[in-house]
Inverse folding.
């Protein structure tokens, strides 16, 4: 915590009254607070009379008032630009930046989401999360959960790189990989112990309800081999997102035949799907900069 300058000066005066020199006083203060709370040179200037205990009155708007006004503008519009704030409050751009740092705020790009949630979507998310949390407290199910999803894997995985440039020089322009790159669709199912079953679809093949139901049969076979305890207990909590092949009438009938309980998943919620926020993110990081010549090398 940054200490008040006037408070530090009072403590320095206390140590000087006790006969301590500048080095001893500074070391004692830094030992109590932070190593950089006060420097020996500052302590020496204070003892020589270059600084006084009380801060001298300064002209201009008080710092606290500035911070409060900036905080009010930021709270009113989170997309406020620092230069616009400076113009409105008659402050320099750097002063606004300094005050924003003191307030502990920073600029970040908006996060793109696949769909702007309606009020109903938001409450559905809350209801789903509360339901799953409360259920897990009464009947822990996470070790019985099997989840899965699909993801396109490209043969050429380009990672953006940082580049050192001179001050004022523009960053290097690099073309973003096109949508026509060679790629393969990965279908994968996993649980807390690891991957249970995966498939790479043939080039040009898309996922539909019929294929998905066939995959569920193959997933059941893999579960019997790798997780027989789940099959024997008849206790599988199955999690999937709301993609059309996952929620079609044919698929729902298939899941009832399998006897798997399907966990609730609110629409437009990739941040609540373990495959999206955990498995695929880790996989993308691992595949960064890798290039595959064939489907076989991609699968390996």
């Amino acid at each position: 915590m940054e200490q008040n300058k006037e408070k530090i000066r009072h403590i320095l005066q206390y140590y000087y009254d006790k006969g301590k020199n500048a080095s001893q006083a500074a070391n004692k203060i830094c030992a109590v607070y932070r190593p950089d709370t006060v420097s020996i040179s500052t302590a020496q200037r204070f003892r020589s009379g270059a600084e006084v205990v009380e801060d001298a009155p300064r002209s201009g708007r008080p710092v606290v008032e500035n911070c409060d006004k900036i905080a009010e503008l930021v709270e009113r519009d989170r997309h406020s630009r620092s230069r616009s704030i400076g113009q409105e409050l008659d402050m320099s751009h750097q002063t606004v930046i300094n005050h924003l740092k003191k307030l502990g705020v920073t600029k970040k790009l908006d996060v793109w989401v696949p769909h702007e949630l309606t009020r109903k979507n938001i409450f559905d998310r809350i209801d789903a999360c509360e339901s799953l949390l409360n259920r897990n407290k009464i009947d822990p199910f996470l070790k019985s959960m099997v989840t899965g999803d699909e993801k396109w894997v490209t043969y050429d995985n380009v990672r953006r790189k940082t580049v050192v440039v001179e001050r004022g020089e523009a960053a290097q322009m690099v073309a973003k990989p096109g949508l026509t790159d060679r790629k393969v669709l990965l279908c994968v199912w996993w649980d807390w112990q690891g991957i249970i079953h995966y498939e790479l679809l043939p080039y040009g093949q898309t996922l539909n309800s019929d294929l998905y139901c066939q995959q569920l049969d193959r997933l059941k076979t893999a579960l019997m081999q790798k997780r027989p305890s789940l099959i024997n207990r008849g206790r599988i909590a199955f999690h999937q997102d709301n993609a059309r092949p996952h929620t079609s009438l044919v698929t729902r009938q298939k899941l009832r035949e399998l006897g798997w309980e399907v966990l609730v998943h609110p629409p437009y919620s990739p941040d609540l799907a373990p495959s999206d926020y955990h498995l695929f993110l880790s996989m993308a990081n691992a595949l960064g900069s890798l290039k595959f010549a064939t489907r076989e090398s991609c699968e390996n």
Remarks:
- The CA atoms of residues 29 and 37 lie 7 Å apart.
